[in-house]
Description:
By secondary structure, the chain is an alpha+beta fold. Helices cover 29% and strands 45% of the residues. It is globular and about 45 Å long.
Amino acid sequence: MKSFTEIFKSINKFDQENELTFEIHSPGSITYKMIVKEKHLSSPNIAHGAVIAGFMDCVLGLSALSEAVTRENLTSTVEFKINYIRPVKLGEELVGTGKVIHKGKSLIISSGEIRVGGELVAVGQGTFNTYPFAKKDFLNDFTSVG
Length: 146
């Protein structure tokens, strides 16, 4: 899983731009972290809902992807649902945990939670399509990354 992790970190511009960090505990089980910065605000001191939704897509998606790569597959988001529990403020650290709750032949379903200091901020569930590395010329894409 280490080589996948290093490759993913090197190509994921969204994570890089927003200074997201993650840990893959095992295939299908991950933790993501992000600190809310001024560029994430929609009103004084409060993060835009799209920031939380984007972060949730990362949480759900990486949990699915970390499972899919064990079968030499990639994933794409089919749909996801989010419930917002409370607003997120400037400077707060988001901690998202994701886990695969179903893995089928062509679909993976994952669930996620986002917390701040242990307090629940949002919950979500997502469905992800799986497809083989070869379909996207995956190996060539990664060997050309430098």
